[in-house]
Amino acid sequence: MNSLISKDSKWVLTEKGTDPETIRQNETLFALSNGHFGTRGSLEEAERTREYSHSEATLVNAYYDSELIEYGEWAYGYAEKHQTVIPVPNGKKLAIKLDNDLFDLETGKTTVHKRQLDLKKGLLTRSFTWENSQGHKLDISIERFVSYDYPELLAQKVWITPHDDGCDLRIVATLDDLKEMGSISEEESNDPRIKAQKERRFKSERLEDFENQLLHIETNSTGLHMIVGEKNELSDSSVQSCFENGSESWEIDTVKGETITLERTVGYSNIFKGASMKEEKAQKLSTVMNEASAIGFEGLKEKHVDHMEEFWESSDIEIEGDDELQVGLRFNLFHLYQAAGRDGKRNMSAKGLTGEGYEGHYFWDTEMYMLPFFLYTQPKIAKHLLNYRYTILHEARNRAREMAVDKGALFAWRTINGKEASPYYPAGTAQIHINGDIAHAVHSYVKVTGDRRFGMHEGLEILVETARFYAGWGHFDEKRNGAFVLNDVTGPDEYTAIVNNNYYTNLMAKHNFKYAAEMVEAVLEAGDEDGLGVLERIGFDKTELENWKRAADRMFLPYDEEQELTMQDDSFFHKEVWDIENTPKDKFPLLLNYHPLTIYRYQVNKQADTVLAQFLFSDEFSQEQKARDYEYYESVTTHDSSLSRSVFGMMASDLGEMDKAYSYFMDTALMDITDMQSNTKDGVHAANMGGTWMSMVYGFGGMRLLNDTLQFRPRLPKDWTRVTFKVQFRHRLIKVAIGKEDTEYTLLKGEPLVIRHFDEEKHLD
Ligand code: BGC
Q: How many domains does the chain have?
């Protein structure tokens, strides 16, 4: 087990000592965020000792810059511009000088160095004793959190206790506007999963006429503005501070045993367009910061801890029988909660706000991996995430036209602003399953929350436009007895590209047609005015309905009768099988070591594809079929993508293979803590974190929504004695406690409800 996890606490990750590699690695794990912005868990003095830091970045959700994508050879419809989330001014920076020595882990001597991430409270703490070269000592503690109550704010407090009288202590707090960026290595700039920042991507100006220190920043090319501000309060108000070049400093004559504290509030305003708003926005941020400073660090912290308590109250999962795994599991839930945009305009990137990997882009990861957690524990956030898709629907429509489909919408494979940002279309735009993924999420949201208003308005529009795109992309193939086919697509497995009839895509499209038809019919039947208004506005015509139904009925789903196996696509079984076992370990992930065409020519999977389709619609397949397909596809899967293992784990639970389910689950739950994919430095794997929640609830809890009824088929791994979680379902809150022998379902809130436990109906009152 990773050394961050100890037997003593089910809530706290602890790092001890000053090993540079460990501290660097934990920068990602100790990142704090709130959906609006996030800041990596870097040391306050990281800039002075680079080997302790990979990136100190503070990232604001959807604060991105853009530049043209340079293609060696361009073709029509290629994505035009990069969208890259960029580090904004760093407000964590602090310098402490005692006599002539500036503190860092390489100067003088640091002892009892400890950092802890308290998941329960959402707090990062650091403490140590530092002895300078003259033998004078300071005890230092630092606390930091990113507020949910004031989403603009990062709050920090520093306690410094001198061991000696009469030393010169200087404290410098800096709001670093990144004039000098760290350098990046060759290796980093080649990894397609990273887009390392070579230079600062915004202009900054200091605003003078405000009582707080404020910076106005504007991206180089996207015209996105923000105000960043800082306010400091030293416990000893008799000490005057001095302002210089964006830093505030204090000179103190030390008194032995007398603790000095510094409270820092750093604010990141919302993003705005147009410099003319800067005064107003600056005033607004200043007001929030003044309010926060009037409450004080301890007061803010109290509110924050209360907020976290509420979060855990509804979203925690308890495991009895494995304390260490318990912390690991909570770590995933903590990061999931931190990452989600909460304003309906921004989403949740593949790395959350913990690192610059994947440029801060939103993928299908949100709908298929992260959303279920929110859907069943924080439905309001789930709605915000779906609303974001609604806000970019017009871009998706434009994209469909670019792809020469004259009706409907195609969502971008990876994006921030709604436009396609994937420069590599075979593993980008070709993944048109994203439409079906979003439609599936909309459908699930409406089923689980009962929010018909959303379903018949925003939901309806998304369902119709995504279905229309499939209708236009595919056709009824006379050579296949008139079956509906979707050619030249890429499924979830990115090691197989541009194929005909990817099983997963076709199955998602089939359901997309059904969801759209169902919702349109519901609107027509109810005569719902909003819904009818939407249908009129988007020029819906009844013949479309018939066409979708026909396409759904006749959807081509490739199957090999001889082997009795589901086919990943038309050509998959015609390829040679890649010899995974005899591929040297250092050649994984394959994507960094083989040309894409080499990989595409083989039967080899980066991640779950057909197995994911069968997991999502598990009641549509027999257990025997699922078991056969599982065995086959597992043998050709490398799990080079972090989105893979959780799906194989859940399917193992479905098939009753509990040892296997447990083993996949361990890898899933501890993926970032153990740096299993060797790239946690670039940010956490948020989809896998969603996969962790799903593994518990869908996997071990066996929860499915079937014909509007929640069904559970619980099964625990052998060493666990009890698992408890809560789910929200149509204004009810249900607690599920799974024991070795029995399962207890308690209705904590809401009207009576019928659920199914295996095949038995149970009435919850
Ligand atoms: C996976 C995709 C995923 C992306 C972002 C890739 O490695 O293959 O399925 O959407 O990472 O997490």
A: 1
